[in-house]
Design goal:
Blueprint lengths: L49 H15 L15 H17 L6 H25 L1
Length: 128
Amino acid sequence: MPQGEPDDVFKVTDRRRRLDADEPPRPARPADESQPPAPSGPAPVGERSLAGLFMMLASSAVVALGHAPDPLTGQRQTDLAQAADAIDLLLLLREKTEGHRSSEESRILDELLYDLQLRYVHTTKQQS
């Protein structure tokens, strides 16, 4: 990390690159521990998207689990009830949007839920 930056700064780095037409896709790399997996295709600026909603709820859960600082206070605090609510809401959205999501939206949602559920279990075990 460059000098002068605090250790608890939540930073997102886009490491994607465009593939050539004849280049096979690379397998996905493991997600960074400090943030949920990022969607592979950003929505145009100003356009609402289901993936954006998924990311917003996932970010809320990550902050509630204490894995990222609160954007307003800069403090890390654990609120398992709030994290569980955000994860439950994502599960409800998965159920209610079944058959109405693109394959990309489904992939993003599944990856986010997997990551968040693992984080939740890990955090609850640490709290015990």
